[in-house]
Write a structure and sequence with these properties.
It comes from Sphingobium yanoikuyae ATCC 51230. The chain is an alpha+beta fold and 222 residues long. It is globular and about 60 Å long.
Length: 222
């Protein structure tokens, strides 16, 4: 594998630099999205079959699978659970992820779909929906600043995008990206819905299931 990277660098140093940047971005944040600053060129290089194969082999050694979804404008790495365990999340992080999956689905059903399958909401509307969700689950509610901090963490991973704050309205737009359906797949949703309905969940950590790409439409997986 090292020789293939060396060959690419000798043949096309500029492309190799982009490959290095893409790998670094995925290692830091797990995902990248075409609409984020600087990510368009990184996704473009990953769409080249020879580069995608090389980068996929690199992450496979570490127990991750590279996924590139051109139609949804993102690329990311998902753990291969046959080699490594699921990532672990605090329950509050998991609930916020579940919330945005719900809001994204509602937007899709209502036809409020932006480019790349994204759905737009606002911070205040999302927080109101969060309060309603945790109240029905008989769980203590996070304050708005704590909630915003968890949304910011999703923004860093490119799962959502937080827009500029409207000082007058004290609100901001949030774009929920289609990759939420991969991060919080059907198994994840069913498990969390069951826990919320029964109030039977742990305060410490919960596992984050990963979508099974073997069942995905081949046209959606670049």
């Amino acid at each position: 594998m090292l020789s293939e990277f060396q060959t690419l660098e000798a043949r096309d140093p500029r492309r190799m630099h982009r490959v290095t940047q893409a790998i670094s971005q995925l290692l830091r944040h797990q995902f990248l999205h075409v609409q984020d600053r600087g990510s368009s060129a990184l996704l473009e290089v990953l769409l080249r079959p020879e580069v995608e194969r090389l980068v996929a082999d690199y992450f496979e050694v570490a127990g991750y699978r590279l996924v590139v979804r051109e139609s949804e404008g993102w690329a990311g790495i998902l753990p291969d659970t046959e080699q490594i365990g699921h990532p672990r999340m605090r329950i509050d992080e998991t609930l916020v992820l579940l919330l945005f999956r719900r809001l994204w689905e509602e937007g899709i059903q209502e036809g409020d779909v932006e480019r790349y399958g994204s759905v737009m909401v606002t911070l205040n509307a999302a927080y109101d929906a969060y309060q309603d969700m945790v109240a029905r689950a008989r769980r203590a509610t996070l304050g708005i600043n704590e909630f915003k901090a968890l949304v910011t963490a999703l923004d860093r991973r490119a799962i959502v995008h937080m827009g500029d704050i409207d000082e007058e309205l004290e609100d901001m737009p949030i774009t929920i990206r289609a990759l939420i359906a991969t991060v919080a797949g059907e198994e994840f949703m069913a498990h969390l819905e069951q826990l919320l309905a029964g109030g039977d969940y742990q305060e410490s950590e919960t596992e984050e299931p990963v979508i099974d790409l073997d069942d995905a439409d081949e046209e959606e997986v670049a």
